[in-house]
Specification:
The chain is of the alpha/beta class. The protein is built from eight helices and eight strands, in the order H-H-E-E-E-H-E-E-E-E-E-H-H-H-H-H. The chain has a six-stranded mixed beta sheet with strand order 1-2-3-4-8-5, with helices on both faces. Strands 6-7 form a two-stranded antiparallel ribbon. Helix 7 crosses helix 8. The longest helix is centred in the C-terminal third of the chain and has 32 residues.
């Protein structure tokens, strides 16, 4: 089974592959995007690894991060282009943030030495249906919202579908560009130029083709081994294989359970798997 996918030449910044390629290889662009989102100046940053997989134990579920960044002042930032269904994103952010902390906590470190930890998701739809173009979450005391918890963690959504009428001009240009409108600012023009240049990169094109081939293999294997065995034969082993295949698609392609089952062509009336087994 094969899926219809975009041609490499048609990819844009909202496609995960191009997003992490551009952001992980162009720190000048990444710095300016973060300055826009965080509304603060960043003198210098280091891209620790594009599509970095953080795994705190051999048998633990890993976190595949798009662009994993450390700023000059020691902040750790994960910048993501997320297309997963919105209902799972808050707990996905929670899991990413906890794994980043565990990854950065050396045995001899004090807890107070943990760096500030910021996770940013750019999402195509409004996660809370409030119409905001930007949602920023911090831990605070519910009895006195002026009292911060002080754990130096932050979660931010950039909502492509949000109301940008009151947003700063640069943010309006950025979100309009994410909506596939023309590049109108220096930043968006630089991003657009980087994408045009990326289309000449034969190595990236081959990586993209390989990524799609891997996806097709995952889907075919999941359908043949999981769906057929688990649903047609009703075997326990088949059900386990089905769940393993769904998890494999989720972890490799960064999809949620519903997206994975959609790609595996599992009928909607046959998706009553144990959701606790799919992580």
């Amino acid at each position: 089974m094969q899926m219809t996918v975009k041609q490499y030449e048609d990819l844009d910044i909202t496609d995960n592959f191009i997003f992490y390629k551009v952001m992980s290889t162009r720190p000048d662009i990444t710095r300016r995007v973060l300055e826009l989102i965080l509304n603060t100046k960043i003198k210098k940053l280091t891209i620790l690894n594009g599509e970095n997989v953080i795994q705190v134990a051999p048998d633990a579920k890993g976190s595949r991060l798009d662009v994993y960044i450390e700023t000059e002042d020691g902040r750790i930032i994960d910048l993501e282009m997320q297309t997963s269904l919105l209902k799972e994103i808050p707990k996905r952010m929670r899991y990413y943030q906890s794994n980043i902390d565990l990854f950065n906590l050396n045995p001899n470190m004090r807890y107070e030495d943990l760096p500030e930890n910021i996770v940013i998701f750019i999402v195509p739809k409004d996660p809370y249906n409030r119409g905001f173009y930007k949602y920023t979450f911090e831990n605070r005391c519910t009895d006195d919202l002026a009292l911060p918890f002080g754990d130096e963690t932050k979660k931010i959504f950039i909502n492509i579908a949000g109301d940008i009428s009151g947003a700063p001009k640069e943010m309006q240009f950025f979100i309009r560009y994410l909506r596939k409108e023309a590049a109108m600012s220096t930043l968006t023009k630089d991003i657009d130029d980087a994408i045009v240049e990326s289309r000449k990169n034969t190595r990236w094109k081959l990586e993209y083709m390989s990524w799609n081939a891997q996806r097709d293999d995952l889907l075919s294997e999941g359908y043949a081994n999981g769906f057929k065995e688990g649903r047609e034969d009703g075997l326990k082993e088949g059900q386990e294989t089905l769940i393993a295949s769904i998890n494999n698609v989720m972890n490799t392609l960064k999809y949620d359970a519903d997206q994975a089952m959609e790609l595996l062509d599992i009928p909607k009336d046959q998706r009553d798997i144990d959701r606790k087994s799919v992580v």
